[in-house]
Amino acid sequence: MAQGIIGKKLGMSQAFRDNGTLAAVTAIEAGPCTVTQVKTAEKDGYNAVQLGFGQAKRLSSSQRGQGKGAGQFKYLREFTPEDITDIEEGQKIDVSLFKSGDLVDITGLSKGKGFAGVVKKYGFAGGPKTHGQSDRHRAPGSIGASASPGRVYKGQRMAGHMGDQRVTVRNLEVFQADPERNLLLIEGAVPGARNGLLLIKKARRRK
Q1: Residue 78 belongs to a domain
Q2: Do 80 and 138 reside in the same domain of the chain?
Q3: pTM (predicted TM-score)
Q4: Are the beta carbons of 70 and 89 closer than 8 angstroms?
């Protein structure tokens, strides 16, 4: 059985729980996905399932060759199943993979914020506002030592491009799964902007 599905973020809404309390939920158009390739350790060196999602308008020749036989899809992504014996090429994977109460890990591309300083990007406190300081309010301060090591360490937190990175949020709860409408309601927020691509997988590290 495949351990995940590809989806598209539709937006956020609200829904009532059984006890009458209100929950913030994210609506995801999940699947249906088609198994385009089953990779095995004997042939490919590892076990994986490649899923196709979304109708493609234009494809390169290499993409057409990759999806030959199973259909032409806009997105192709791999998932690592626990067991591949019951998975075949052309098989459909839909929202019925999940049920209410399941925990999932969701991966997406975070919203891009453009160029940002260290105060916005990392929450730096900034410099002093008085005592002769006129242009250090949002400056990072010292970025390294002097003679030793005489350089700036790799990974030093500095101003730069913020967001637009692959982000995974773990142990989100499935509020509702609706296979008829290919709709998945997830309690809480998920990464990315509206219409962003999401990978929904069964949670690996339980709470």
Answers
A1: yes
A2: no
A3: 0.82
A4: yes
Residue with tokens 């090591």: 149
pLDDT digits (tens, 9 = 90+) for 16-70: 988 899 999 999 999 789 888 888 888 888 888 889 888 777 777 776 666 565 6
Surface-to-core class of residue 139, CB atoms within 10 Å of its CB (0-12 exposed, 13-18 middle, 19+ buried): middle
One domain for residues 29 and 48 = yes
* Domain limits for position 172: 4-113+166-202
Burial class (CB in 10 A: 0-12, 13-18, 19+), 205: exposed
Enclosing H/E stretch for 169:
strand 166-178
**Is 126 a member of any domain?**
yes
Q: How does pLDDT run across 79-104, given as a tens digit for each residue?
A: 888 777 788 888 888 898 899 989 99
- Which 3 state secondary structure label does DSSP give 161? strand
Q: Are residues 51 and 67 in the same domain?
A: yes
Question: What is d(CA 195, CA 172) in angstroms, rounded to the nearest whole number?
Answer: 19
Q: Which amino acid is at 2?
A: A
Domain match, 12 and 30 both = yes
Given CA atoms 134, 138, 142, 143 in this order, what sign does their dihedral have? negative
- Per DSSP (E only), the strands in 2-102 are 4-16, 22-30, 33-39, 48-55, 73-79, 92-93
For 180, counting Cβ atoms within 10 Å of its Cβ (0-12 exposed, 13-18 middle, 19+ buried), the class is exposed
Q: Are residues 38 and 96 in the same domain?
A: yes
